[in-house]
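> tool_call: predict_assembly(chains=two)
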Amino acid sequence: MSDPVSALNRVTFDGFVKVEEMGPRGMITLRGDHALPEVKNAATGVAGVNFPGQRECRVVEERGLAWMSPDELLVMVPHGEADTAVASMESDLDGTHSLAVNVSDARAVFRIIGPGAREVLAKLCPVDLSPEAFVPGTIRRTRAAQVPVAFWMVEEDVFELVCFRSVAAYVFDLLKTAAIPGSEVGYF
Amino acid sequence: MSTRLQTGGRLIDRSHREGFSFNGKRLTGYAGDTLASALLANDQMLVGRSFKYHRPRGFVAAGGEEPNGLVNLGKGGQFEPNQRATTTELFDGLTAESQNHWPSLEFDIGAINAKFSRFLPAGFYYKMFIHPRPLWKHVYEPFIRNSAGLGKAPQDRDSDRYEHFYAFADLVIIGGGIAGLQAALTAGQAGAKVILMEQTAHWGGRAPVDGVTIDGAPADDWIAKTVTTLEGMENVTLRTRMMGAGVYDHGYVLGYERVADHCPGLGLPRHRLWRIRAKQIITATGAIERPLSFAGNDVPGVMLASAIRDYAVNWAVSPGDRTVVVTNNDDAYRTAICLKQAGLEVPVIIDARPEASGALPEAARALGIRVETGKGIAKVLGGKRVTGVALCAQAGEGAELEQVPCDAVAMSGGWSPVVHLWSHCGGKLNWDDAQAHFRPDANRAPTSHDGLPFVISAGSANGELHAAATLGDGDAAGKTAIRALGLSATAGGVAKAEAEAEEPMTPVWIMPQGAGVKLRSKMWLDYQNDVKVSDVQLAAQEGYESVEHAKRYTTLGMATDQGKLSNINGLAVLSQSLGADIPQVGTTTFRPPYTPISMGAIAGEARGEVFQPLRRTPIHEWNDANGADFEPVGQWRRPYTYLRNGENRADAVKREVLNTRNNLGLLDASTLGKLIVKGPDAGKFLDLLYTNMMSTLKPGRCRYGLMCSENGFLMDDGVVARIDDETFLCHTTTGGADHIFAHMEEWLQTEWWDMQVYVANATEQFAQIAVVGPNARKLLEKLGGMDVSAEALPFMAWADGELAGIKVRAYRISFSGELSYEIAVPASQGRAFWDACIAAGAEFGLMPYGTEALHVMRAEKGFIMIGDETDGTVIPQDLGLNWAISKKKEDYLGKRAQQRSHMTDPKRWKLVGLETVDGSVIPDGSYGVADGINANGQRNTQGRVTSTYYSPTLDRGIAMGLVLNGPDRMGEVVEFNKVDGTTVAAKIVDPVFYDKEGEKQNV
């Protein structure tokens, strides 16, 4: 196996925030009834974090769980562990109606870092990014300009954003454009 | 002449001079000037020619309502036409040119139109140019287009950048005058999250110019103090140079922020469009003074009284030594007093009212200004500049009483609240007889999703014109908003604003009231579109009773200023002509934006690199570096072909087809849709989605399937692989991936919610690489790692394994008719696998091929293509695909529709192959012609071409088409039309041109 290559191979940009493509990240779409203990246990078992509530994302380094919809979770693990994690969840969920799919390579992950991070995203996404409304641990599935994205806040001034791999260059260019020094809005 | 006063000017900084040019002339102004104030300070009163009659025009107003002062601004990539000089802040190096004149502003040949103005009445174009019809297109329209129009179209690409910004607030307040500031203070202190926006660069609105005092001190003091207080509040955002452009459903507000118009060249985004979701909105947008309709009211030097006051107080600009004031209200006396106090002459105040005895008229008299009551202006003297006015009795027909020489005329016909933003989302208006204007009716406010009001009007925008009431009204609006937000107001009084008391105004719609037609045809209502009192009266006479009809017939209010000055005067004239009351006639509809906003702001960031998303496969970079000639496929960029050493496209496609048929081809098929369908009911679900049976497919095997809409039309196709008992992988077309995924979810969520099925879109998880041609197996065997023999991996089977050390899933499927494997690898390994194939394939004659070779090869095999053979009106039965429609199934999507009479009509055109008799290629889109013509005089048809190519394999033109009774007419020759009007003969044949038995793909 060659080393896995992410869409933009960890490209970075320094504007009034720093934008980084994060390289490969293990991601699994898990569909199933969140109320079922089997589903909860399968997810928390591989991710090692607590089960998230609505619009919550719990991430510790490369592992985490994100609430995507009432019957969908995004499970994050290190890239090399994704297939094993799928197998482990499938065995936990044997007999329970569910679907676990490795989508690690279908995505690109960016970090937006800096005090202006809220503003950069608010230029592209119709989301209330004010500190009252968006706090570490919040996730939103939305759009950035013309493509679907999801993002969550890791800690104050640090967001992680995922988009489809095919539009990684577009999203990176969007983030760069929004982060050009001098275009700070000064709103938040 | 207009000039700069020696002292004063609250907005200018005399220590900073700014150089600029107007029509090539180099001029200077001060920091804080607008282009309009700087031009006036340089005695440039004449700034443009009118739209229709090319009459000389000067500034009328000082703000966003200005109809005349439009310029071509900037150069090259920063050029923009129709920019209002009154709202353009001066900066060093600004260049502007006046518009709509030829050959020059001073001498304009189009002004000849004015001499013929009685031949250009309302509706002139409709009446004159309607007959004969053909002349409209070829003679009249080009001529009219040449003579009309204001600014020039930009020639260069816009060199600036723009952006959007999404914000959410409890309360958006539009307008930073004293009412807006007070409302922000009240709401801010109660803890509401407030955005307060002001379209100019300054807070406070008119109050400082009008001499208002607040708590006993000049208004400026209170404004400065209040802004400081608001700036100290975490929950309040203040933005100047930001106009409320529109109010939309459910509290959506567009804010148009002109970030860098006043400081170009710093690399800032020029405009930022704020897209704000607000729970409550306060429109504190002020009021606009109305002109008076007297003969010659458009001569440069005739201005709104408030504008003359603005220029004098804000920018220390005198419009002339002698200014005559003409009014129907007390407020205009402020202009007379202001000018007099600045040391300028006011020869006379002409007041249309029978008497004027209020505090302001008395103050004017005390300054020694002559006041003539019951009088009007019979006409303005002068052409390119006011030289005087002729007085008359307002009650009469316009007989001249005396002439008064002057340089400027300050007119005031009363004030109209700016109700635009209130009205955008359905706020209703009441007619206020006393102030002769429409004002918001708080009981009929725009309502939101909950049926409750979400817009509140405040201050003079609410009809509270007097400063004393304005401040209290702002506070009341703030409190209304607070209650609606569920907050409570804090204790504390409102500051006390004071200004001179005003006596009632008297509406004056025509001056003098008995003016004859000669005078009326010189009374301008709409300066920008050259609409006169006589035009509106003519429209009324001709039966245009509805205000909306009269507007379109006369073009009143249809220019870029959208009738900000002309609206009320125009409909008052219309209602008088109709003998109806103004409220009965009503007003035209107010639509966003309030004033024009730039196209760039609307586009936001979407230009250049990020104009639209381009989707790239994991192989994209290799493709790009190796001659790929890309074509758009949805938002993907796929190689149409790979050009080598100076080949043209056709040669490259031919080479790729022949090489794939004879040796080995490699195709980047990553864009194919890959949907994973899993659950106990997955088989049942797919049996309903596809026309054929999927539930009987064995794990490890593949089956080609067709998907129809509920109307029976073929919408997508692809190979389905069964992964295990509960899991299927459905391939879709490239363009179908997203919408078929959505289609599946829709059926699962809305109709078949009881089915236990989950779907996931794994399209981008995999790079999919087709290895195609007689040498395909040899290549995979060389890469090594799994058994790809015919026995282990037969045609229409799949297997998981490893190739070249990479985890793969190999499908034995073929869209070319050759021995073919489609290899799916994780996208992060896609490039590595591709590179391994390229490296190992040299000895087998490997060449990558593009989408066109793919198309040619599938056409040679008679395989249909969604979007070529289908167009949303084609059912599988039309395409001879009955073999893929299960007879055993009780139901599938489209089954019922396919049984309807039109769908089973034997006359439906059916798919056949077409072979030209002369071997040429039938043009794309060609129709099979039949004898005779139809009712529309068009040639009858009997079929159409759906795909047509030069086949390198057969060295001739081949095509597929839908032909009347086609399958029953094998061997018949049908004529197909060509672009040059001739036809080409083609023989009806089987659509499979190559390897009919399918031996090559099954080896």
